[in-house]
Automatic annotation (TrEMBL):
UniProt domain HMG box: residue ranges: 10-84
Coiled coil start-end: none
Pfam family, one: HMG_box
Keyword Phosphoprotein: no
Source taxon at top rank: Eukaryota
Gene Ontology cellular component list: nucleus
Keyword Transport: no
InterPro entries tied to this protein: HMG_box_dom, HMG_box_dom_sf, SRY-related_HMG-box_TF-like
Keywords: DNA-binding, Nucleus, Transcription
Region feature (Disordered): 69-89
Protein name: HMG-box
PROSITE patterns in alphabetical order: HMG_BOX_2
SUPFAM superfamilies: HMG-box (SSF47095)
Amino acid sequence: RSKWEKPEKIPRPRNAFIIYRTANSRKIARDLKARGKNGGILNQKVSQYAGEQWKAEPEEVKERYRGYARQEAEQHKRDYPDYVFRPRR
């Protein structure tokens, strides 16, 4: 590897909401399309609607997704034991 190549960027583990949004994005997009509310900026609208849906979900559904996020974080630690999140400034 030359000194000019960037090292491989390790992605952060996803949080519960991101896993929820990923799991439900197709359904949410269909719901928005059926309501005529996709507005041409589908990804932004899907995220906005997913946030509203997430807030309305019962605590047991949220806890299920938090469990998925914990599992993903544990797997991430096994895959990348030296990983440290360093936000760009």
